[in-house]
Amino acid sequence: MHFNQLTSMQKDVLREIGNIGAGNAATSLSKLLNKKIDMQVPAVNIVAFDEVMDLLGGPENLIVAIMFRIHGDAPGTVFFILSMEEAVELVNEVTGNEITLYDDDQVPNDLAISALQEIGNILTGSYLSALSDFTDLDLHPSIPYFGIDMAGAILTVGLNELSQVSDYAIIIDTKINKKKHMDGNMGQFFFLPDPEAFSKLFHALGINGYE
Amino acid sequence: MNKMQTVIKVGIADLNIVKAPDTIRTSGLGSCVGAVIYDLPKKIAGMAHVMLPDSSLNKQSNLNESKYADTAIPKLIELLVENGARKSSLQAKLAGGAQMFQLSVSSDTMRIGPRNVEAVERQLEIFRIPIIASDVGGNCGRTIEFEPETGKLKIKTVNKGETYI
Question: Is residue A209 in some structural domain?
């Protein structure tokens, strides 16, 4: 399998997966906030592991992440990722209060954390159910895992499976943002299919011959 | 000290060596293990950012030796000796090997942090290199930086700030 080579047709299919998943998630967030939420055109990145972290501001950059492992026909990992600023903004939007994630003594704020967890669950759930409906594949998400830590430490969880077959990752990266503010990012989705998932995804969406 | 200090960066599944006064650093270790092997009197050190425990997991046509504990550690030792370190005075410090999420599925790849630590320790035992200090396990990310001048390993985490081992 030529992991770091995709035809433009295959890239289009992966981009469409990002579109469907994040589109559904954006709709959920829009309902939750009662605001218009937009999404950007998904990017399909084929990147070396170090570059995966660079997509999120470097391996040491602090991020908030909600992660699902997908089991079943097309295994992989889905992350919903927020910068610390985005996370605070999202919590403020949802709760209507000005709260920070940590107090002055670096103790996490329970309300803020559970709000983020819940939003993350709803959004990743929407992403996955759209993906599952669209591909008609049997996908079983794990329970959601929540973490605030360095980007490198968190994302490696999604790289371990594929690191056995490749030094590159294929990432379907879709950002969602507030309408009117193209820079008002409200997080992004990373979908990292495991190596064996690609042929299933391509087959399910009608392009064959991916060996 | 007027000489500019350089920080050598080690990426994921990567290794390198450094001589004092320069330092060597790797960022965002989660389940990966940062293994430092050094010859203190000679002020030379090497660091490997090990991602997986065993190269038998490899399904690639060309093996990246720096990725696996059982290939990265021998390669790092060889590189150190080639550059003037003495095998008999090598010592080691370890950090990383965390379990970032308490995953319910007991699949082996999900226990990768502890398995990486065990694999690195086994390699060091084979080469009879004593582990002077380690900060492994837990569930937090770590950035580490080693000073061959002093033999100190700085560990930075999100919640506990900076510590030295």
Answer: no
What CATH number does the domain containing B156 carry?
Answer: 3.30.1330.200
Residue B165 has pLDDT above 90, yes or no: yes
Inter-chain contacts counted by CB atoms under 8 A, chains A and B: 103
Q: Specify the pairing of strand A168-178 against strand B14-19.
A: unpaired
- Is B20 inside a domain boundary? yes
Q: pLDDT at residue B107 above 60?
A: no
> Is residue A34 a part of any domain in this protein?
yes
Residue B29: list chain A partners with CB under 8 A: 152-153
A14 located within any domain: yes
Question: Do residues A151 and A159 make contact, with C-beta atoms less than 8 angstroms apart?
Answer: no
Contacts of A156 in chain B (CB under 8 A): 12, 28, 30-32, 51, 100
d(CA A201, CA B160): 42
The 10s digit of each residue's pLDDT in A146-164 is: 889 999 999 998 888 788 8
Question: Distance between CA B21 and CA B42 in Å, rounded?
Answer: 12
Please tell me which residue of chain A has the smallest CA distance to B156.
A60
Does the global pTM surpass 0.90? no
Instruction: Look at chain A and count its residues.
Output: 211
Its domain, for residue B97, covers: 7-164
Averaged pLDDT of chain A:
84
Report yes or no on B1 lying in a domain: no
Domain hosting residue A85, numbered range: 8-203
The sign of the CA dihedral B105, B111, A144, A182 is: negative
